[in-house]
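Go through this chain for my students:
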Amino acid sequence: MKTWFITGGTPGGFGMAYADAALEIGDRVALTVRRPEELRAWAQNHGDRVLVLPLDVTDPEQVRQAVRKTEERLGGIDVLVNNAGRGWYGSIEGMDDDAVRQMFELNFFAVLSVLRAVLPGMRARRSGWIINMSSLAGLRGVTGFGYYSATKYALEAVTEILRTEVAPLGIHVLAVEPGAFRTRAYAGFAYEPVEETIAEYRPMLEQVRAAMIGQDGKQPGDPRRGVRAVIAAMSQDAPPKRLVLGSDAFDVVVSALEGNVADIRASEPLSRDTDFPVG
């Protein structure tokens, strides 16, 4: 029986889907959430196999306390799912500086805090799984979500290097990149008007907001099926390094990466001509 530590347990989201899937296969779950009262009834149905923890992941001391409580109550953490995060939209030039920094605190620096709190136990046991929930936007930037994309690109880089550093210690690391999934993530756009300091970008952002509102509740991805795909990937003899979730995301990512390779190859003579002459 494994112990899972999952951040971002908002009802209807990926965090809850991971928790339910882990419980279905007989494991224990520590699920963190900003408002634990939302999960009280759910937790009672699972007895001592579930621990719901209030947590602001941007507070490193709270993170350390949550990990310590999990280890005391449920044992060493075998699977970490870094799922907490949020997407804000805005232009690169005009987005408020505080909003940019808040997004990096939540989507990037908070992940580092959780990793650093959980990894000592995994290193001591020479085993473990780390699942970092990235995004389609971490492999192909999304217009209107430039800084959100930047946080996910940064997470992709950390995930890639972390994988090489902890592999000799028996720890596996997987990046998961969902496309549009039917969670509550899009619901807030209806209540958050465009806040843009530069008029030229407002029409673009209004279109982005309208598109997100229009997709809410109609996204093609099923979080529960997405989580089952992750668990299936973890059980493979040679697990993947990253897993794109959703047909929409798969097509977009493959097209974008192939386009990048073609663009790089088109300038190959210029790239190679920058070396010192040989001989």
Remarks:
- The two ends are 63 Å apart (CA to CA).
- Residues 3-270 form a domain with the Rossmann fold fold (CATH 3.40.50.720).
- Strands lie at 3-6, 28-33, 50-54, 79-82, 128-133, 171-178, 242-245.
